[in-house]
Each structure stands twice: as structure tokens, then as C-alpha cells.
Design goal:
CATH architecture of the largest domain: 3-Layer(aba) Sandwich
Distance between the termini: 62 Å
Oligomer: single chain
Number of domains: 2
Shape: elongated
Number of strands: 5
CATH class of the largest domain: Alpha Beta
Radius of gyration: 22 Å
């Protein structure tokens, strides 16, 4: 039998600690414990929080990729708790997305990464997106062009150019993710980038960059002299 959190000193209990010292004073496991709410006969909610983190390699980004079935696989985490955890992680992702500088001028690859990382970093499949820019390099629109599996997605250059014309874009930045965590471009990534650049040149639409996102890291074709 484990010691219940209610039997801990008040200053050590996650809820009371958050109220007294603020959320920043809590560990990741303690924050998860508040979401989990209650433990089991042998484990406290904090213990379950630690086990959840261990399941994700002690990485919150990896934890955000876990689905409801994977969360429920941990003994002591039922459907209601799994849904609560998933909802909290999604709110965190949306907060980060809301902070992305979508309407400002794109000045660097980091600006593009900040826009797309909240959308793509936690996905377990590949998605290919386009950022349409005006002549001042300010975003006009963004759009998902294709979605694939773990190892790739099919991208149609004709659709990209059609959407560029419809959006009256002067520039394009393409972006996709690598769920594997490897941000290096594949040969097919290099080939599709070249095709988009050549097609855009015919329509006076400049391809400015291609960003590959892999978790918290990214690769920029422009920064590496490939565009």
C-alpha cells in the first residue's frame, strides 16, 4: 500500500503547492498528478505521473504524441483520465500555435518553424503544408496540401501552383514533418523542392524555403544553400 497524497504534508501536495507557490514550482509529474486526480491502492497520482513520463521517455513532446489507447495502457489510467491528459496537452499545443507570428513579415527560417512546429511536431504521420506570401514576405494564407503515412506523403506540384495562383501569392514556403525525428532531407525531399522551385519560376512565384520539422528541430533548405 502506497501513502496517499492526502496523507502528505500540505506543502508537498501538488494542488496545495500550486496554489501556494505557483505552477512553475511543480515538476512535470506533479502537474500530471493534478490532471490524473487520484491514484490506485499501491500508487499515488504522482507515481502515475512519473510512470506516464517514463512511458514517453521523460519527454513532454513525446507524451503529446500518445493517443488515448496508449495512455490507457498504463495501469491506473482509465478513459476519463486519459481524455483529461490528452485535452490538457492539446490546449498547450494550441496555446503555442496561437503565439506563432502568422501575420508578421517572414524574416528567417525560425519564423516559419514557429508557425508550423505546433501543427506538425507531434504528428505520427507526414503532412505537407504551404505558406503563401505577398511581395512583402507577409503570410497571405497557409494550407495543408497532402497527408501521408509514417514514411512519406505524395505532393502534387500542380495543386501547389494552382493554390498559389488562387491566393495571388508572390512567394511560397513549403513545410513538412518527419515523424522519425530525423530532420535531414531525403532524396525525394530534394527532388520535390526542385520541381516546386522550377514550376514557381514559370509563374513568377518564388520558392523561398523548404522547412523540415522533426520535433523541436528543423532543417532549412535556404539556410543550407539548397534553394
Amino acid at each position: 500500500m502506497g501513502i496517499k497524497i492526502t496523507e502528505w504534508a500540505p506543502s508537498d501536495r501538488p494542488r496545495e503547492k500550486l496554489i501556494e507557490k505557483g505552477a512553475a514550482a511543480l515538476s512535470d509529474a506533479e502537474l500530471l498528478a493534478i490532471l490524473i486526480s487520484s491514484g490506485t491502492k499501491s500508487k499515488s497520482a504522482v507515481d502515475l505521473g512519473r510512470e506516464l513520463l517514463a512511458l514517453a521517455g521523460n519527454n513532454l513532446n513525446s507524451l503529446g504524441r500518445l493517443g488515448i489507447p496508449e495512455l490507457k495502457a498504463l495501469q491506473g489510467i482509465g478513459e476519463a483520465k486519459a481524455v483529461t491528459i490528452a485535452a490538457a496537452l492539446e490546449l498547450g499545443r494550441r496555446r503555442k500555435l496561437a503565439e506563432a507570428p502568422e501575420n508578421g513579415q517572414i524574416k528567417s527560417s525560425a519564423d516559419v518553424f514557429n508557425i508550423f512546429q505546433p501543427l506538425l511536431a507531434d504528428l505520427t504521420h507526414e503532412e505537407f503544408w504551404i505558406l503563401f506570401l505577398n511581395r512583402s514576405n507577409k503570410p497571405i494564407n497557409r494550407m495543408k496540401i497532402s497527408q501521408g503515412g509514417i514514411s512519406g506523403t505524395v505532393t502534387d506540384v500542380r495543386i501547389i501552383m494552382k493554390k498559389a495562383v488562387e491566393n495571388l501569392a508572390s512567394g511560397l514556403i513549403v513545410c513538412h514533418n518527419h515523424p522519425s525525428g530525423n530532420n535531414n532531407p531525403s532524396e525525394s525531399d530534394i527532388q520535390i523542392t526542385q520541381k516546386i522551385r522550377e514550376a514557381g519560376a514559370l509563374l513568377d512565384v518564388q520558392l523561398l524555403d523548404h522547412i523540415i520539422i522533426a520535433g523541436s528541430a528543423y532543417y532549412s533548405f535556404a539556410d543550407n544553400g539548397l534553394i
